[in-house]
Amino acid sequence: MSGQLRLVLALHNHQPIGNFDGVFESAYRDSYQPFLEVLREYPEISVTLHTSGSLLEWLVENHPEYIDAIRMLVERGQVEIVGGPFYEPILACIPRRDRIGQIRAYTQYLENLFGQTVRGMWVPERVWEQSFVGDITEAGIEYTLLDDFHFRGAGLDEDQLHGFYLSEDEGRLLKIFPGSERLRYTIPFAEPHETIDYLRHVAECHPGGAVVFGDDGEKFGTWPGTKSHVYDNGWLRRFFDVLRENAQWLKVATLSEVVDHVPPSGRIYLPDASYREMTEWALPTQRQELLSHLTHAHESDHDWQQIKPFLRGGFWRNFRVKYPESNEMYARMMQVSSRLQELAESPAGSERRDLIADARTHLYRSQCNCSYWHGAFGGLYLPHLRNAVYANIIAADNILEKLDGGSGHWVRIDAHDYNLDARKEVRIAGDKLVAFLAPCCGGQLYELDIRDIRHNLLATLNRRPEPYHEKVRQAGGQHHSEAEVSSIHDLVAFKQPDLDKKIQYDSWPRKSLVDHFFQPGLTWEQAQNGVGEMGDFVTGIYETLLRRSPEQVQARMSRRGRMGQYEVSVTKTISLDTQAAGQLDVLYELEDLPADLPIHFGVEFNFAGMAAGAPDRFYYDADGRQLGQLESIQQLDDCARIGLVDEWLGMDVALEISQPCRIWAFPIQTISQSESGFELVHQSSAVIPHWEILNPPDGCWSVKLSMNVDTSAAQARHLSEAALTS
To answer: Is this structure's pTM higher than 0.85?
Structure first.
């Protein structure tokens, strides 16, 4: 062997804000703890370790012995700690001030906890834009690692990927390592000798170089099948043994050691990219399917390896186009970030730095990346992760209202481009509720924040095509599992039977105050399947007039549109009053209705974040009788009131209706991909009051709907818990 090769093992451990405590505990038990136990038996093998702030805070609270063990390994030089943005945001998803602020805050936290200077950082999901060089270096970071995919996109070939490069932005220099995609697939899925054979070839061709493995620590025990493979079957010990046996030519090093002893390979400017799979997931579904088809059709061509580096997937920010719900969270987070910056520089903010710090922590937590996109894991499709984002956004917003002088009962209304679509939305806010309306999209109510329990009742998600749905259809809903451990990207398993029969897509946003003119006699099954629509009001443009007084605010939205071959007018007036701060009133006025023609009008509501499949989450009727859990199907006649209860949240939402009606209620459920397979996920409960109208006087008809949100149960529980701890 002509020269020594350095191998960097960089592990990234992460659990998102809002994940269940049991998931944290399981990952600790299956991955983080056993990996450390094996590592301690091999003192000559060092690792570079990144732990996200959301996970590290949990470990400090729940497993201080793990923190002590890491600290011991740091002291003996076996573990290098690297930082990053505190709560694992995609850097492209937050403003520059928050990028720098999160990185600096986490560096300080890590240095205080472990007593080691933090020089490097992990880039969340390796989502990269060249301008990040300036932000990262301004935050005090010297080096980072991305994927070799980024470097191939800049024109480098395989022989140029065995070291690190200097990159520059506005005169600031950052050292960047290419992580090996090949090692991401062999570690830990192939036998150790396959990795060693590859590294031996690199050492022979590139003596004195360095190769970096950088990937999720959950691959070592948490991913399906890996606990048995890595620990019970001894893969990790076998891997460490072969590293020890080949120590004469292969040195396991940290990133800092490579930076200090190996010169840079050159300069580079990297294109906007992430790891290869992420760029594919960011594509629109049809283009993603086409890319997959082309790849499989040509991967056996003799010149495929020369062509492959020039193939490109999508741009990460387009997840906010692919999934409008992601953009809703992003836009809301940006509102809070901007307002926080403004108030932090105000006299009130200067006097209450404690409140500013609390609001900033909640803001940073709301930026945790997992809820903003979807790939091999549930991500955006998981309601509890979206709810956690909104909980922290609302918590920060509540603090900022307090800083801005909000007290007692109050209401406000204003219009602004709140969702960043170049059109104005309406914000109705009070001390109990915050409602966002989209006049240019059917006058829909697309966000409803309940301040005291920090819950967005409209954190919904539409059912839409995904490339993996074809796998579900082909499998016919049968349970399937892999016989041997595989990469999460190749896993095919089903968590429920008959998923193929439940694939369904929505043709409009599943929000509230969605205005329907249905075909007369339409059944709930047809309505649930999205057929029978006769009007153009669902996403049509409404003209809007705002009214305000100290006691009440109103948004009056009107549209003249089509109902079949007829033109009709719909006006809906949404009101919030200081005397009923937890209630939204909506008055519908229909005009120019044709006589002697059956008219079928309905208003769709969706209620999100109220879990299904639990006895303490249920519907009830006007007499208070329980009707069924929130995933049940309800068909009610001559109804003037329906309610939904979530006892875990301590919330009761009642819909009172001035004109008795029929009500359809049914679940909105997605088929999505997760770590453990394809699964059915309850996203919202759709509730649709509807009326069959015939011969209305003067062609006019009206109805008032009142949505009352009662959180007294949550408040009582909070007071009880406070009394027990005082």
So the answer is: yes
